[in-house]
From TrEMBL:
It holds the Pfam family M20_dimer. It comes from Rubrivirga litoralis. Coiled coil: none annotated. InterPro entries: Amidohydrolase, Bact_exopeptidase_dim_dom, Peptidase_M20, Peptidase_M20_dimer. This is Amidohydrolase.
Length: 444
């Protein structure tokens, strides 16, 4: 081996920062500089979040929010697409070095909830929703998601020249569900419109008052449930309430159907694999005491944390409802509308493994990679069904504060401790950098 080759070989064994020192003046590595930049943008992130909080917009109506985001991304020199999935915004930040593409996602919509939190920037916005005047509030914390991702955009744009790859910023509308007649929407429609822009992995987070500031939680596999709307119409034959034998009673049949549906999860599903839920939330039929009606309609929701169990639940629900109806001489029409349903949000185990050192560095003891799954749903699942995805919970409860002060997401009293925002920015920024650099060190 020549002296030169030996020197090069020794150099290659050194970690990246030391290598930079050997090349020239010492400079912190990219991850360290990103951390310093995160600290600088925190006041901006707080301001973005407050602005969006004060100006909330419902699903598929996020026009002002989208304009605010698009202006920010354009100002950072990104390639920006607007009107994606109606009101979504996609920013593409092409790094100065070659490398892979990774996507970061924030959802932008608010809820028809009248805010009751005493804040100087509380929402006073009202609108007409389903024919009713309602308040509009960021009661799910998507204002924080948008503020955080705007901050991440600022940080990564500042180190653009050294980024080994491309970062796609997905600002998504309608996570809470599109208004009637507007499906597909949200993440599903963004995917269909090519928003992922060649990304090979996607990261997202959700603020939650269930966990405290400084806590970052995730798990491999199913983390949030699939959610499918269920409608069952039981058709009987109308008759006098005093002479039920003259018709077919859909009310009595529906009672059997509801009970039968409850034995699917409790008696037929392998609950050691994952939990599941079938709920009938509304039942509707008849007009007065002495008329057996022609039909009864019921609606409900189906939740699963495993794709196979989701499909099995659908089959068993159809069979249970139709067979019970038929046993009574009635018929049942079962509609499981996956049109408005969300798939299981499942984290890619290999991606979580790969990013665990980054998450560990970012959150330290606050990191938990074995959090229990929840049966709420998220349409981040559509992105994560396209490419490996990782979704995280970001705690926003003041440490030690009560449930009363930090009620669950969707409450009119939902609040976040803004001290949680820096960890949110750092998490997404470092996941992007860690992913891109990981690929570089793997030999790109
Ligand atoms: Zn929500
Ligand atoms: Zn949400």
């Amino acid at each position: 081996m020549t002296k030169l080759l030996a020197a090069l070989a020794a150099l290659a064994l050194l970690p990246a920062p030391a290598r930079a020192q050997a090349d020239g003046p010492p400079r912190p590595d990219l991850a360290e500089r990103v951390d310093a930049l995160v600290a600088d943008v925190v006041p901006d992130v707080v301001a973005y979040r407050r602005h969006i909080h004060e100006n909330p917009e419902l699903s598929n109506r996020e026009t002002e929010t989208a304009a605010y985001v698009a202006e920010h991304l354009t100002g950072l020199g990104m390639e920006v697409r607007t009107g994606v999935a109606r009101t979504g915004v996609v920013g593409v930040l092409t790094g100065g070095k070659p490398g892979p593409t990774v996507a970061l996602r924030a959802d932008m919509d608010a809820l028809p909830v009248t805010e009751r939190v005493d804040l100087p920037f509380a929402s006073t916005v009202t609108t007409i929703y389903n024919g009713m005047e309602v308040g509009v509030m960021h009661a799910c914390g998507h204002d924080a998601h948008v503020g955080i991702l705007m901050g991440v955009a600022e940080v990564l744009a500042a180190v653009r020249d050294e980024l080994p790859g491309t970062v796609v910023f997905l600002f998504q509308p309608a996570e809470e569900g599109a208004p009637a007649g507007e499906a597909p929407a949200g993440a599903e429609l963004m995917v269909a419109e090519g928003a992922l822009s060649g990304a090979e992995a996607v990261f997202g987070l959700h603020v939650t008052s269930a966990h405290e500031v400084g806590e970052l939680k995730t798990r491999p596999g199913g983390m949030m449930a699939s959610a499918d709307n269920l409608e069952i119409v039981v058709h009987g034959k109308q008759t006098h309430g005093a002479y039920p034998w003259g018709g077919v009673d859909p009310v009595a049949t529906s009672a059997l159907v509801v009970t039968g549906l409850q034995t699917i999860v409790s008696r037929q599903m392998d609950l050691t694999k994952a939990p599941a839920v079938v709920t009938i939330g509304r039942i509707d039929g008849g007009v007065r005491s002495n008329i057996i009606p022609d039909s009864v309609a019921m609606i409900g929701t189906i939740r699963a944390l495993d794709d196979g169990m989701r499909a099995e639940l659908h089959d068993r629900i159809r069979r249970t409802a139709t067979d019970i109806a038929s046993s009574q001489g009635a018929t049942a029409t079962v509609t499981i509308a996956d049109e408005y349903g969300y798939p299981v949000t499942a984290n890619d185990a290999a991606l979580l493994d790969r990013m665990a050192p980054t998450l560990q560095r970012v959150a330290g003891d606050g990191l938990d990679t074995g959090v229990a799954p929840v049966l709420g749903a998220e349409d981040f699942s559509y992105f994560a069904n396209e490419v490996p995805g990782l979704f995280l919970w970001l705690g926003v409860r003041t440490p030690g504060a009560s449930d009363e002060l930090f009620p669950p997401n969707h409450s009119p009293l939902f609040r976040i401790d803004e001290d949680a925002l820096p960890l949110g920015v750092r998490t997404l920024a470092q996941l992007a950098v860690g992913y891109l650099e990981g690929d570089e060190s793997a030999g790109r």
